[in-house]
Amino acid sequence: MSGDERWIHTPPRWSATFDPHTIAEIHRAAATGIYDIRGFGAKRKLPHFDDLLFLGASISRYPLEGYREKCVTEVMLGTRFAKKPIKLKIPITIAGMSFGSLSAQAKEALGRGASQAGTSTTTGDGGMTEEERRHSQLLVYQVLPSRYGMDPDQLRKADAIEIVVGQGAKPGGGGMLLGQKISKRVAKMRTLPQGIDQRSACRHPDWTGPDDLEIKINELREITDWEKPIYVKVGAARPYYDTALAVKSGADVVVLDGMQGGTAATQDVFIEHCGIPTLAAIRPAVQALQELDMHRKVQLIVSGGIRNGADVAKALALGADAVSIGTAALIALGDNHPRHEAEYRKLGTTAGAYDDWHEGRDPAGITTQNPKLTARLDPVAAGKRLANYLSVLTLECQTIARANGKSHVHNLEPEDLVALTVEAAAMAQVPLAGTTWIPGRGPQD
Amino acid sequence: MPQKKRSPKPASGGRNSVLDLAELSLRQINQLLHDTDAGDFLIKNPRGAHSLACGLNAPLTVTIGGHVGYYCAGMNKLATVTIDGNAGTGVAENMMSGRVHVKGDASQSAGATACGGLLIIDGNASARCGISLRGLDIVVKGSVGHMSAFMAQAGNLVVLGDAGDALGDSIYEADLFVRGTVKSLGADCVEKRMRDKHKAALAKLLKASGLAGEVDIGEFKRYGSARRLYNFHIDNLGSY
User: Fold this and answer.
1) Closest residue of chain B to A192, computed from CA coordinates
2) Considering chain A, what is the average pLDDT of its residues?
3) ipTM value of the model?
4) Domains with residue ranges and CATH for chain B
5) Chain B residue whose CA is closest to A189
6) Beta pairing partners, A301
7) Which run of H or of E encompasses A418?
8) Which domains are present in chain A?
9) Could you count the other beta carbons within 10 Å of the beta carbon of residue A225?
10) Which residues contact A243 (CB under 8 A, 6 or more apart)?
11) Cβ atoms within 10 A of the Cβ of A209, count?
């Protein structure tokens, strides 16, 4: 290149609008004529718990001894109506994930890990497996729109019931399980032909709207003799109204799943463009509970992008009673581990970015029904990894709670938090760090 | 909300009992039925109560003397439940086995997601009859509303009258037998040949419903899945 030419040709510049991923997706769509399907949750940058900070204690606040003083983590769920509410030792539960989307070994590992940590795990589309029940001390049974595998005997065996109205990754959408994963056992449990692409209903077959939901909840209570807590799970869309309506309908527990919440398989456009971030959903839901005088009476479980104890503590400080993890739990089992890098490369991806959970080719043996792959996952070892991870989340949450002077993690409060960005300040309704300003409110409010 | 208990104990317990909803709460009656392993029961004054006789799990015989609300006999196992009146939404929803007989009309989602047993409706059934059916047999002596047998996976739906719009939309392996007219078929639902085994199955269901010899099987048409949408293919986009 001569001296003059470098002024004629500037280095290549990527478009912010048509970035490399966007261009690749246009090429993929043009080549195939079908939308992209994948697992995982939203991957775009969103306002999240990282945009919040705890203040800790100083002269005006008194901390607890970090290594000596007790910080309680127990949570009771279902205290509103259930004869047998459930007690969790830690404020972290395992979210609903189906046998079908996950291998039987993975479901067993989730049960083992949760039980070691003293918390609950949750079924999913397709019903309850024996392995899952046997290894889960506390098991929540989902009642989904599809009702695949729905069985009153399993309902009676469960410790709690969760009516799934929506999911953060796809609020308004039904489940999807492609033919590669509809094995003989999965097909039998769901009463479906083997190998079909199962696309579940998005609406419940026998109720519509909150008045019906109240009657449905009542039926489930009657069938189980009012013993079991009944949760209502919603994708974060209109959390103020959805929470209020769930309470009105008689829920014991509201589960609120933000758009970072994972899925086994859905259209990428759905995952990235529907619903609201977890951070934005919590305060409106808590506001609804407070206005109804139901905060702490109807418990709130928040999920979608919980990764560490700081996230747990921040969700609790904003008013949640507990959090739920799905994607992080799978990672703890071994999903996206670098030990499988060679196989991820063969699948056209890399450890940390693998999200084709719907294809049933997971080298970690978690999101697959292929017996050769599922055999790789040792449920005992994977369960132990999950228990370790849950322990770390709990210890981290306690560390933060003590530093903020709290003897129970539920004593964390919005006053302990500040925001790093204007957006997070507005969504979490806490002041921008170093100011008293909460967007949408005057400084004196 | 929990039902207020009106009486410390049922007026009559155990076998061959009369249970009066004017005297007992819904909770008391359902609990008694759940705690009993056999017997005949007559439930008086149902007055449109929801969730009556739901979750039964024993070979009881329960007759309900009047109209019921939502989810009567929901998730029934083993029991025989007769409703001497009309039934609200979701009668016998998710039923597993046994027999439920509605002597009047049924509202929407009758037999929704049900896995086994026999549901007989003497009158008409509203929309979504047999939605997501998973093995139950339903015999409707009148007509059914729109979207009946939507996503039906297994079992049989027999309709002596007419069927509304979008019958059998996205159906899987269930069989639909309709004697009258079908306003329209849903996506991937087609008329299918009535083979001998289908005629035998239909005759058996009609007999079980007390219609042996009263209805000509030759008047029925069979509908089921074309199986074109079992696996997603872009050529079928127009079907959705």
Assistant:
1) B153
2) 95
3) 0.93
4) 17-222 (2.160.20.60)
5) B134
6) A255, A322
7) strand A417-419
8) 42-413 (3.20.20.70)
9) 16
10) A234, A254, A256, A284, A285, A288, A289, A300
11) 9
